[in-house]
Amino acid sequence: MHTFYQADFNNTFLSEEEAAHCTKVLRLSEGELIHLVNGAGRRAKATLVQIQTRNVKFSIIEESQDQKRPYEIHMLISPTRKLERNEWMVEKMVEVGVDAIHFIKTEHSHRESFDRVTNLERLQKIAIAAMKQSNQSWLPSITNRLRFEDIINKWPEGERFIAYVANEEQNTHLVRLARTHTPTYVLIGPEGDFSVHEIQSAIGAGWRSVSLGSTRLRTETAAFVACHSVHLANL
Amino acid sequence: MHTFYQADFNNTFLSEEEAAHCTKVLRLSEGELIHLVNGAGRRAKATLVQIQTRNVKFSIIEESQDQKRPYEIHMLISPTRKLERNEWMVEKMVEVGVDAIHFIKTEHSHRESFDRVTNLERLQKIAIAAMKQSNQSWLPSITNRLRFEDIINKWPEGERFIAYVANEEQNTHLVRLARTHTPTYVLIGPEGDFSVHEIQSAIGAGWRSVSLGSTRLRTETAAFVACHSVHLANL
Q1: Do residues A170 and A76 lie in contact, with contact meaning Cβ atoms separated by under 8 Å?
Q2: For A15, how many CA atoms within 13 A lie in the half-sphere containing its CB?
Q3: Over the Cα atoms of chain B, what is R_g?
Q4: How far apart are CA B110 and CA B81, in angstroms?
C-alpha cells in the first residue's frame, strides 16, 4: 500500500504534490487503499474516493498514533559546500530517525554556499520522502541560519556533545558517552573544523567533546555516524 | 600535505591519474612534500623531484607501515539499481573503514542494472579517493558477480550475519551480536529483500539473522549502518 504525506487529516484532499504523485506516477484508481502519515506521529488508512488530475479526495477508514521515541536527537551541523552531500545527509539521518536538524553558521562555514545548500523547501521534500520510505510517521524539524554563539548556551537540560577533528584520539566515542532516554544534542563542524575559540566556548558552556571513530570523516558522514551512534547507545 | 595513491613505492613516478591531479588540480611544484599510501597499509613521505605534465617523479624520505585493525569487515551486498546510491555506499563504508565489499546476485537482484552499478573500475576510484580523504592507508577489495548460493557455505571461521526486512522486530541488533576481534561477514539484501528460500538457506548454513534498527532502511543505508555497527561493537 502506498504512503502519502498529509499534514492535516481534516483536509480530505491530498496536497498538489502528493496528488500528482498519486495520479501521474503511481496511477492509482478510485477505491484503492492508501496510507497517510502527518509527520507528527499520526497514521491513517484511507480509500481514494475521487480522482481528478489535481484533486485527489480520500476518506479515512482508521487512524492511529505512533509513540515518540523515548529520546530526542538534535543535530547541529555546519553544512558542507556541496548541495548533494547535504541532501544525502538529511535523507540518511531521517531514514535512521532524527528529531531536529539545525544548520549553523560557524567561523569556518562557507558563507556563499550556506543558503543554497540549506534550502529548507528542498530539504523538507527530501525529509518527507525519506520518512515515507523508511515507514516512519514523524518528520524532523529543519532550521537554518542559527549562529554558533547563539546556541552554545541553549538546552542545558540535555546531553550536549561537540565532535571535532583536533585531538580526536583523546576523546571517548559518542556511543559510550550518550545517555539513554535523554535529549541529545550533537554539534558537527564544517570542512575546516571548528575554530579553537569555538571549541573552547562550547566546552566552557558544558558541551562535551567526543570521538566519532578512528578515521577522518567528511562533515555529512560525521553527522550520520553521530546520529546513528546515539540510536545505538539507546538500544 | 597532499596524499597520493601509489600502489608500488618502487615505481617512483605517480600514476597518470594521480600525476594529472598533482599538476593540473593541485598545481604542486618541484621540491614540495607529499604523502603516499599504497592501499596495503604502507605510507611514505616524499619530495617531488621532477614535474612534467604527465610525469611526476618523487623521492621517498621516510616510510612506515600501519597496523591492520584487529577485526575484518566483509560486506556482501545485493546492489541497488541506482548507480549513485551504490557509489555513495562504497564511499561511506570506506570512510568508516571496510575490508572487503562483495556484490552478490540474489533472486530479487535487478539483473539488467547489475554490471552498470557495480562497475569495478569506477568504484575502485571512489574507494581510493575515500581512503585518501579519510586518512587511511588500507584499500578494501571490491568484487562483483558472486552468486548467493556460492557464498553461504564460505567463511565458517568468521561471524556471519544476514540482515533482512521480514521479521525485523524479532531479531537482535547486529551491534549486540557482533563479536570483537573476529572476521565479520554481513549479507545485505536487495530492494525486494532476500527470498524466503535464500533466508532459510543462509540460516541453515549458520548465518545469524540480525536487526539493523527499528526503521525500514534502503539497501545502501542498511549496508552502511551494518558496517558502522561492527565498528562500534569493536570499540
Answers
A1: no
A2: 13
A3: 20
A4: 7
Cα–Cα distance list, B127 to A49, B153, B211 (Å): 50, 28, 27
In the sheet with A33-37, reading across from the earlier edge strand, the strands are: A3-5, A33-37, A42-51, A56-65
> Who among B96, B213, B235 is closest to A225 (CB)?
B96
Check residue B167 and give its pLDDT.
Answer: 66
Q: What is the pTM of this model?
A: 0.96
Give chain A positions within 8 Å (CB) of B228: 225, 228
Spatial separation of the C-alpha atoms in residues A123 and A138, rounded to whole Å: 15
Across the interface, whether the CB atoms of B215 and A173 are under 8 A apart is answered no
pLDDT for the residue A168? 64
Residue B14: the pLDDT is 97
pLDDT tens profile A95-126: 999 999 999 999 999 989 999 999 999 999 99
ipTM of the complex: 0.95
The three grid cell numbers given for residue B9, joined into one nine-digit string: 613505492
Are the C-beta atoms of A100 and A72 separated by less than 8 Å?
A: yes
pLDDT band at B168 (very low <50, low <70, confident <90, very high): low
- Compute the distance between CA of residue A207 and CA of residue B175 in angstroms, rounded to an integer: 27
Q: Which three cell numbers mark B225?
A: 549502518
Residues 6+ positions from B188 with CB-CB distance below 8 Å: B75, B76, B77, B78, B163, B219, B222, B223, B226
Q: B192 with B167: CB under 8 angstroms?
A: no
Q: Where are the alpha helices (DSSP H) in B54-164?
A: 83-96, 111-117, 120-133, 148-151
Q: Which one of B136, B176, B232 has the shortest CB-CB distance to A215? A: B136
